[in-house]
């Protein structure tokens, strides 16, 4: 049976940054988070360019019959081409890049695309699962058995990303196709959230606040209370029965 999603999203500059280089998007069938990097405001441009492509995909995609994986992977590739073009226009932008974590939804399943260290989580039957794997130096060290997960969480180089969507050329995203279930709750977020809040806190908020907008607000507030050294972007979406209305709340900037 086809389902709807009820969703909310928010973005905050955090406590220590002067500008927000994160970008996000949420609609009834596409959710996305991008965390930009690069000097001279190039990070903000990179994330905005990637989200602009996602918005275009949402607008142009037919309502039925779309190949979810092909459509989303194609959008990520197009975003990569845009970054290359932007860097060619202005050499100061060379080296800019952005993470991309996005979900494309058709009422039955979703395609998931992922590059970088933003994350996607699934809350199902009371258990929280991380759907994505960080493309970072410390995650590769964990995979190789050189450090533990606990050590990775406090490692001084935990923010070093190995795979992003960048102006230096194409990077292939991790792709997955997942069947959704009624009652599922999804969280997409930039690392500004997960570098401050652990999985136990994420689980507590996602299981105790039924309203997606309230959950988004609480997660951003807790990150800021924890010092928020980076920008924080959060998208929460619930799989609901047909006929239950979609909603969307999007906050940009501290105090917005």
Brief description of this entry?
This protein is an alpha+beta fold and 256 residues long. It is 32% helix and 28% strand.
Task: Report the structural category.
Answer: alpha+beta
- CATH C-level class: Alpha Beta
Number of domain modules: 1
Could you name the CATH topology? Phosphatase 2c, domain 1
CATH superfamily: PPM-type phosphatase domain
- Computed CA radius of gyration, to the nearest angstrom: 17 Å
Uncertain regions spanning at least 5 consecutive residues: 252-256
Major sheet summary line: 7 strands, antiparallel
Estimate the strand proportion.
25-35%
What global shape is seen? globular
Estimate percent helicity.
Answer: 25-40%
What is the CATH architecture descriptor?
A: 4-Layer Sandwich
How many strand segments? 13
Distance between the termini: 38 Å
Pattern of helices and strands: EEEHHEEEEEHHEEEHHHEE
Mean pLDDT: 89
Structure description:
It is a single chain. The chain has helices at residues 42-60, 68-89, 137-143, 149-154, 191-194, 199-208, 212-225; strands spanning 4-12, 22-26, 30-37, 97-98, 100-105, 109-115, 119-124, 127-130, 165-166, 174-179, 185-189, 232-240, 250-252. The protein has 256 residues and is of the alpha+beta class. The chain has a single domain (4-121, 163-253), classed as Phosphatase 2c, domain 1. The strands form two sheets. Strands 2, 3, 4, 5, 6, 9 and 10 form a seven-stranded antiparallel β-sheet that branches. A six-stranded mixed β-sheet has the order 8-7-11-12-1-13. A hairpin with a 3-residue loop joins strand 5 and strand 6. Helix 6 (199-208) packs antiparallel against helix 7 (212-225).
């Amino acid at each position: 049976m086809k389902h709807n999603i009820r969703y909310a999203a928010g973005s905050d500059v955090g406590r220590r940054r002067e500008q927000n280089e994160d970008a996000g998007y949420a609609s009834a069938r596409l959710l996305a988070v991008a965390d930009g990097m690069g000097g001279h405001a190039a990070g903000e441009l990179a994330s905005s360019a990637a989200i602009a492509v996602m918005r275009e995909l949402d607008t142009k995609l037919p309502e039925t019959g779309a190949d979810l994986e092909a459509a989303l992977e194609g959008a990520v590739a197009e975003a990569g081409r845009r970054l290359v073009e932007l860097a060619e226009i202005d050499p100061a932008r060379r080296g800019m890049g952005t993470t991309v974590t996005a979900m494309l939804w058709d009422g039955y399943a979703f395609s998931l695309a992922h590059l970088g260290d933003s994350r996607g989580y699934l809350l199902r039957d009371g258990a929280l699962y991380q759907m994505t794997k960080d493309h970072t130096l410390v995650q590769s060290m964990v995979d190789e058995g050189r450090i533990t997960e606990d050590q990775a969480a406090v490692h001084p180089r935990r923010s070093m990303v190995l795979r992003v969507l960048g102006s230096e050329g194409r990077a292939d995203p991790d792709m997955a196709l997942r069947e959704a279930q009624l009652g599922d709750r999804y969280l997409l977020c930039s690392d500004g959230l997960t570098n401050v809040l652990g999985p136990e806190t994420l689980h507590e908020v996602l299981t105790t606040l039924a309203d997606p907008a309230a959950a988004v607000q609480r997660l951003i507030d807790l990150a800021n209370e924890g010092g928020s050294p980076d920008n924080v972007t959060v998208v929460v979406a619930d799989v609901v029965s047909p006929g239950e209305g979609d909603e969307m709340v999007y906050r940009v900037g501290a105090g917005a």
